[in-house]
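S.,

Sequence below, as promised.
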Amino acid sequence: MKRRFFLSITGALAWMLFSTIWSASWIRDASGALPPIYALGVIAGIALLPGYLMSAMFLSNLMHTHFGMVDPAVREPVTVLICARNEAGHIYRTIQSITSQRYAGTIDVLCVDNGSRDTTREEIAQAIVHLQRPGRTVRLLRCPIPGKAYALNAGLARIQTRYFVTVDADTRLQETAICAIMHRLLSSGAACVAGNLLVARADNWVQKMQIYDYLISIAAIKRYQGSYGATLVAQGAFSAYRTQAVRETGGWTQGAGEDIVLTYRLLARGDASLYAPQAIGYTEVPATLGDLSRQRIRWARGMFEGLRAVKPWQQPGVFGGYFEALNLSIVYLDLAYTGGFLVGVVLALMGMPWLVGLMTLLTLPLVGMGMYSVYRFQTRIPTLRVRNSAWGLVCFLVVFQPVQSLCSLRGYAQALTRRRLAWK
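The prediction came back faster than expected:
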């Protein structure tokens, strides 16, 4: 494991050195037209550092292409914890996707209603009547205190199995997902395992561009980090946990990123956090730019909450500390993108290609190669249904990153000022 990690880092550093030498004239020309510190900072943030990060991830993922076999005979009893607030339109189908799992062990679906004002409880009651069968039970628990962490902790107190899985109320699982994620958890001894989330529905361009965020970007990062037992986010939408490990950390804390904080704390115990690409869930994604912006602001705040809870140097493992420290560089990349690349595009359109020009285009082959390698890896998973959209891909390449960076910067600002978070 360490050998592959250092090989990927060495290759990425070599690429970064080559890129720095190659871009010397670009830096010199930009520094002649703009303040040198600004020019160097932007070029480092939009080309040199991203090149290092992408090449390290690309090289590592090339060395970790094996899926591993999933044992269909896994029989460990498991609880699936679903927390819901005003999810009447989704929760029945979510429960149905869980009770229909091809899993040899028993599954206890524990639904925690977090003060819903719609017919969520009625939908759960219908599931209890119609979806229960031998080996598949459905329970309803009420938690009137608003906040997802409160609901999760209320459910945690009622879990009687050694392992449990969290699933969002709007996430439907592929029929072998529980088997795949439980096999990964049991065979590794890890504290948690993140599933492979994909977009469930793409009715408009906002959702279609998110297809490739989940299919490529998020999956690549989780696969990279998980190869070294340090997946930084076992997302609440679909992840598996060792019950005692979560209880010993104190469960979830209320905030924008309760799943991020929990994962950081599990890593700080010396436990492993993994990724199971064959454990597939399909989740509902924001349908408007406003909803997408609010989601990404919340995710950015969650990253800061994780960093506040456990500092990179407090991680006992080299890999966990390294990946957590890299999260700090994301702040710099977002600043460079919004304050440099977007400005550079405007300048280029005005005939001044100091920051964005021919040299910037040379980064595209590396980006394209990395994206294609992840896409090919995902499409090799037998049970994964890939939903493609040419228009979605164009929007992902052109529109998504500006939205992501601008929303992230707003989220960072809210986290630093400790602005109160409203639970829906």
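The radius of gyration is 22 Å.

Coffee later?
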